[in-house]
Amino acid sequence: MQERKRIAVAGATGRVGRPTVEVLEEAGHDVVPMSRATGVDVVTGEGLDEALAGVEAIVDASSWPSNEQEPATDFFLASARNLQEAGERAGVKRIVVVSIIGADRATKGYIASKVPHEQAIQSGPIPVRILRAAQFHEFVPLFLDWGRQGDVIYVPEMRTQLVAARTVAEGLAELVNGAAPAPSGGSIPEIAGPRAENLVEVAKLVVARRGDSVRVAAVNDPDDPEQALYASGGLLPGPDAVLAGPTFEEWLDSRA
Known about the structure:
Shape: globular
Number of domains: 1
Order of helices and strands: EHEHEHEHHEHEEEHEEHEHEH
Largest sheet: 7 strands, parallel
Strand content: 15-25%
Structural class: alpha/beta
CATH architecture: 3-Layer(aba) Sandwich
CATH topology: Rossmann fold
Radius of gyration: 18 Å
Helix content: 25-40%
Strand order of the largest sheet: 2-1-3-4-5-9-12
Distance between the termini: 35 Å
CATH class: Alpha Beta
C-alpha cells in the first residue's frame, strides 16, 4: 500500500491537472488543488506559502491559455521560480512537471516555451522529475472549434501519438510517488498513446460522430517553421516512451 502523502497540484482545474487530482485522491493521498480559483497564483506567488504548508511533493500541471511563445515563457519562468522558492520554504521534497514531446525541437509557439520551463524548474534546489507528453485526445475537439470557417474546418497537417489526459495524470502520479525509475543518461521520459494518428483523420472522425456536414481540410503553410515539425512526425514519441491508454477512437467511444 502506498504511503499517504500531502501533494499539491498546480493548475488543478486544467486539462491534465483535474484528472491528476482525481488519480492522486483515488490513491488515498491528501491533495491540495492550486489554481487562481482556489486562491493560489503561481505567477505572483499569492497563496503559495499557505497552500504548500506540510506538502511533500508538487505536481506542476499549470499551463498558458494561448499559443504565443513570449507570454507563455514569461508565465512558466515566473511559476518555476515561485514553486521552487515557496517549495523550499515549505520543505517540499520533489516537484513533478508535465512538458510536451517535441519541445526540444520546436522553435516558436507554446511548445517552444516548455524547454525554458524545464530548465527553470530544474535550476532550483528541489529535485525535479519531468514527463513529456504527446498532445491530448481532449485537444482535438478544440482544434475543430478554432479552425472552423463557415462550412470548412482547417486543421494543421500533423502526425502525433495522441494520449488521454487521464493517462498522463497516471504517469505523473507514478513519478510523484517514486514508482517509476529515473531514466538513464539524463533523458526525459515520454508518455504517449498506443498508436500514431494523423490530426486530419481524427478530426474527420469527430465530425462524423457529430453528424456534421462540415468539411475538414489540412492546412500546410510552407512559411511556418513549425509546419515541417508537425508534418514530419517531430511530435511523435521516441523508442523508449511509455505507450498507454486508449486510442483516440476508443476514447471517443467512451465519451459517446
